[in-house]
Amino acid sequence: TPYEIAPGAWALPGIASTHADALWAGIHKVIQSHPLRHLVTPGGSRMSVAMSNCGDLGWVSDEAGYRYQGTDPLTQTPWPAMPEGFREMAISAAEQAGYPAFEPDACLINRYAPGARMTLHQDKNERDYSAPIVSVSLGLPAVFELGGLERGDKVQRLSLQHGDVLVWGGPARLRFHGVRAVDPGQHLLTGAHRFNLTFRKAA
Ligand code: MD3
Ligand code: FE
């Protein structure tokens, strides 16, 4: 049962749990050829979250900046295709949240080990902010922070569990957000990690 967290932002609690095995198999296949790695921010810091991508475009960061590109800078080969099950899950979630015709061309795979976090930021590297972003949480839980359109705005905290899907569109698309440091734990599927899949229309 979807509920609106904030105008344009929808939570679909647990809807990915029944697809978790297929999503996990897809993650494994992608990271076999395009390993998870810790990217460096333009400021020179190593990100605590390890990342890889699938789809036509992948999100990367280095000294030159944040951007999407078709080739993995580590392997210098194109990102693997988005597994069909990933695509279907993302499109169906967007539809259930009232965003029909979502066509994701990028899927970022984030892996959080205990202590890994994502500081408050906006997702602004996409060409078209009219498309929503779909995010799928797997494994260990996390506390998500949702701010406003300005960095100093009050932050709302939200607990994210295995199988939860969030859809961010319309007036929520450019809100600041982050993930608090993940606590140590064990999950039957993902072991000592939290994984997040983020589907976007980048081009
Ligand atoms: C809220 N990842 O990769 S996805 C990211 O759990 C990122 O790994 C987080 O933020 C994670 O950029 C959260 C959820 C998300 C994505 C886009 C948003 C939340 C958002 C855009 C606007 C508001
Ligand atoms: Fe983000």
TrEMBL record:
Coiled-coil parts of chain: none
Domain Fe2OG dioxygenase residue range list: 103-203
Gene3D superfamilies tied to this protein: Alpha-ketoglutarate-dependent dioxygenase AlkB-like
Cofactor(s) required, per the database record: Fe(2+)
GO molecular function, one term: broad specificity oxidative DNA demethylase activity
A Pfam cross-reference name: 2OG-FeII_Oxy_2
Record has Secreted as a keyword: no
NCBIfam families to which the protein is assigned, alphabetical: PRK15401.1
Protein name: DNA oxidative demethylase AlkB
Taxonomic source organism: Rhodoferax mekongensis
